[in-house]
Amino acid sequence: MTPRERGGPEEPLLIAVPTQRASDLVFPFAVIEGKAYSTGKQVFEAENQAAVSGASGLKIQLCLNELVKRATTSSDVPPIHPNTTPPLFFSVCTEGPYHELYAHYTHIEDGVRKFNQTLLKICNGMLLESVVDFIVVVDNVLRWGTGQFLESVVERLEMVARKAGA
Predict the structure, then answer these.
(1) How many domains are there within the chain?
(2) Which of 44, 88, 109, 119 is the most core-located residue (most Cβ within 10 A)?
(3) What's the pLDDT score for residue 151?
C-alpha cells in the first residue's frame, strides 16, 4: 500500500484480481461472455460485457507495467526493455451457434490512452470447417496465455520483488 499523491490515502500498488468478490482468477488474459436465445439476449450484449472485461484486464497489465517501471528505475535492477510487448487481452462472445473471438488492446492518440478491440475470428457452430478453424485459433490464444503471457507476468513480478527485497 502506498499513497499515489503526497498526503493522499494509501492505495494498493497493484490490483491483480478483477472482481470484488473472492476469486482464484489473477492476471486474466481472456474471458468468455455468452447469451442464450431463450433469454432474448443478443450477442451485442456479450460484446459490450467483453469490452468492459477487456479494458479491466488491460488496466491490470498496465498497472503491473507501471509498477515494474517504478521498480526498475533508480535501482540496480536492469531497466525493463523498451520493446516490451504491449498489453493484450482476448474475449470470446457467443450467442447460440454464433461465436466471435476478439483481441483487446490499447494505443495512445493525442496523448490519451484509448482502449480498443478488434474481431479476429467468427464461427458458426453449424459449419464444421468454421468450428475447426475457430478452435485452432482459440487454442493458440490459450497456449499463449498459459505460456508466454504467464511467463511475462512472472518475470515482471520478480523484478518488483527484487526491488522490494523479497
Answers:
(1) 1
(2) 88
(3) 92
